[in-house]
Structure formats: C-alpha cells, structure tokens
C-alpha cells in the first residue's frame, strides 16, 4: 500500500517538526526492520528454502525430486526404505508375478504419504519388497515438500505455458470440470499426466509411471544378428488363414511375430525415448516406431539366445484404428480398416470367432486356441457400421514350434505381457 503525504502551511517550523518526526521514524524503523522482515524479504527467504537439485532436462527420463531427494522411475523399493519410506505391514508378504504391476499403494515417511505403483519387470515372481516403485502420484500442498520435475518445473509454481515450452506439445490435452489435463506418452507403460487448475493454469498434480525394466550399462549386448531374424521371410500377399497371422500394415506385409528390423527396412524409425535399448534372451520389451507422423507402440520379444538390441527383437502385437494409430491395416481374407460391417462378416464366414458387444460396437475375436493368448481382434463401430479397429497379437514361446508359454496368463495387449493386475479389496 502506498501512503500519500499531505502538505500543510507553516513554513520552516512545520518542516523542522516533520524532519524530527521522520528521524524518529527512521530510527524506530531500523530497529523494527531487524525484528520483522518486510513482505519482499519474507518472499525472498521462502524462495531460498527451495532445494537446489540436479534433474534431467527431459521428462522421458522420469526424474523428480521430493524436497532434496532425487528419484528416477523405476526405483528399487529398498532405495526408498533407505530414505525412511515404508510400505504397509500387510503388504510385506505380498508376492508379485513377473512382468506384473500393482497400483494405488501407499508409501509413508513419518507424517508424509504418497500414492505409488509397484512393478516387477523381471521374469520371476518376487516379494513386493524386492520390486520397484514404477509409478507415483504427487500433489501440491502448502505443507508438503517441494516437488520438482525435469527442466525446473515445480508443482504449485509452474504454469501450463511453461510446461509445454519445456516439454513440447503433449500427446493429449483436455479439460474436465475445474482442471486441465495434459499427457505425454513415451510408448507402452511409460507416460506422465500433469494437471493444472483451469483458473490460473498452475500445475498442482502429476502422475508419472514407467513400468519398464531399468537398463544396466554393464549388460553384455550381442552384436550378432540372431539366426531367427536372418531366417525371417516376409509374406507377399494375404494368406486367408487367420492362424498364420499375416498382416498388411502401412502397405507392407508382415507375419507376426516380425523383426523390428523389417519395419525399419520399410521406412519406420525407432524412437529412442519410447523404446528399450535391449531385451534379454527369451524376454519381452517395448518399442515405439514412428513414420509420417504416426506412432506404433509395440510389444516385442527376443527369440534369440543372447541379449540383443531392440532392432533384433520381434514385434508381437500391433494395431490400427481411426483414433490413435491411424495406419492402414488388413488381416485374414483382406479384411481392412474402414470396411463395411456386412462385407467383413461375409469374409469371416467359415472362421471360428467369438463376438462381444459393448455400448460402442462389437468385437470379433479369432483365437489360436482355447488359451486365448494369441488372437486377431476386429472391432465394428455401432453407429458407423464400419471396421473401426484391427489388432493382431501373437507371441508364441518359440518361433520353430509356435508353442505358447504356459506361464503367461494374459495376452500382451493387456499389460506387461504376463500382467496380473492386483487391486486392493
């Protein structure tokens, strides 16, 4: 507030009294200044309390800080325990299957609580205490510690404009009630959702998840192209037999599983930030392929006998639709995206399938066997009466025998391949 001085009459006498009075104020003010900081000084002191941390410039590195502690997803639960965080006692005996996750759990540190997701990206079942924190929900509160993201983005301070300037155009953005939601996706099970108040567009909440297996710089990676990749032969036309998993994708033919290198030869590029660098022998991983502004988020498997780079793995799941992956796709007896429903049904005659209806349309599943692990899915839009989406998923245990892994419990399109999603009862 600015106080305006009112001038009066009385010449030097009034001026002298004013100077004496001002001297008194100045002296008293100096004493008061030592005890009670002005608002600007208080603000400066508050800013000085903000921890100086070193974080990545890239959101896709999934680094963040809680106070002075810097974290990166996924992080071993044991690392959190070293900093005083703990899980509920009832969860200490919980076992988590390989390549599975559990969401909405709680980590506690004295009076502070945060919501987290646990993930076991490895192949064997493990106790929860030996798993990783793969996801986290941070929400700005006045009494909470500073939550910071890459590029200096801070909850409770940074605006929507500042976030998009740092991280680029989001994958998705929408408004709901009093909030603005933006999402950055970096392939399967690797994304960040940031939420802003619609009134001032200030960031107040972030949910980050990276369920992928952390990479080990010391992991030996074979430079040799696996024989399975060398022996692969791409089909030249539709087979007509759905069980052969021949698919025409973006005007090129593949037989799924198909090497990532085959997609690269046909003009697709591997996105570094959305792809695993390598995959261990017999294990699954993830790749993001890009072409002409379109992105394909695919599950892959290493059918070789040694750890290999992502280019030498096999794509086991892909799709095309009207909304997200807008890529031309065709399967079986040349059933293609956008085909009228009646024509599609004619081409399905003689094939064994299961139909499931929902409020948006009908799904036609063509399974390889009773396990229902490997399939082709055709979705027909209820209103348009057109084939709106096609999905191909085939992940046999070996390429030679075409047998399926008996340990797998769900198909790779559902989750972390062998996902067993657990929720609290």
From TrEMBL:
Residue stretches of biased makeup (Acidic residues): 398-407
Region described as Disordered: spans on this chain: 392-425
PROSITE patterns: PROKAR_LIPOPROTEIN
Top-rank lineage group of the source organism: Bacteria
Name the UniProt record assigns to this protein: Uncharacterized protein
The species this protein was found in: Blautia hansenii DSM 20583
């Amino acid at each position: 507030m600015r106080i305006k001085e009112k001038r009066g009459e009385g010449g030097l006498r009034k001026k002298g009294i004013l100077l004496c009075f001002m001297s008194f104020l100045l002296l008293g003010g100096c004493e008061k200044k030592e005890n009670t900081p002005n608002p600007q000084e208080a603000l400066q002191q508050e800013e000085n309390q903000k921890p100086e941390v070193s974080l990545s410039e890239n959101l896709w590195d999934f680094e963040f800080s809680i106070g002075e502690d810097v974290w990166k997803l996924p992080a071993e639960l044991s690392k959190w325990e070293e900093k005083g965080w703990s899980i509920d006692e009832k969860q200490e005996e919980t076992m988590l299957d390989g390549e599975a996750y559990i969401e909405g759990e709680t980590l506690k540190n004295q009076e502070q609580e945060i919501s987290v997701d646990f993930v076991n990206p490895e192949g064997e079942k493990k106790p929860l205490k030996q798993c990783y924190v793969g996801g986290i929900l941070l929400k700005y509160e006045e009494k909470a510690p500073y939550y910071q993201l890459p590029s200096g983005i801070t909850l409770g301070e940074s605006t929507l404009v500042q976030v998009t300037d740092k991280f680029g155009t989001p994958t998705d953005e929408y408004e709901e009630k009093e909030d603005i939601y933006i999402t950055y996706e970096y392939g399967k099970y690797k994304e960040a959702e940031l939420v802003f108040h619609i009134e001032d567009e200030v960031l107040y909440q972030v949910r980050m998840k990276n369920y992928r297996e952390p990479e080990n710089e010391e992991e030996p990676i074979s430079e040799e192209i696996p024989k399975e990749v060398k022996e692969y032969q791409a089909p030249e036309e539709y087979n007509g037999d759905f069980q052969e998993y021949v698919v025409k994708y973006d005007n090129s033919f593949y037989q799924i599983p198909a090497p990532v290198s085959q997609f690269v030869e046909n003009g697709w590029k591997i996105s570094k930030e959305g792809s695993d660098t390598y995959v261990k022998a017999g294990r699954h991983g993830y790749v993001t392929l890009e072409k002409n502004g379109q992105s394909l988020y695919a599950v892959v498997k290493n059918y070789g006998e040694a750890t290999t780079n992502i280019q030498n793995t096999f794509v086991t799941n892909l799709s095309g639709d009207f909304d997200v992956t807008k890529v031309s796709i065709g399967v079986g007896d040349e059933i293609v995206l956008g085909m009228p429903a009646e024509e599609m049904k004619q081409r399905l005659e003689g094939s064994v399938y299961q139909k499931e209806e929902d409020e948006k349309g009908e799904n036609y599943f063509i399974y390889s066997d009773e396990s229902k692990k490997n399939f082709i899915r055709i979705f027909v839009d209820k209103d348009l009466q057109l084939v709106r989406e096609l999905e191909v998923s085939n992940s046999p245990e070996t390429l030679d025998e075409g047998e399926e892994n008996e340990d797998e419990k769900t198909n790779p399109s559902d989750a972390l391949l062998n996902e067993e999603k657990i929720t609290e009862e």
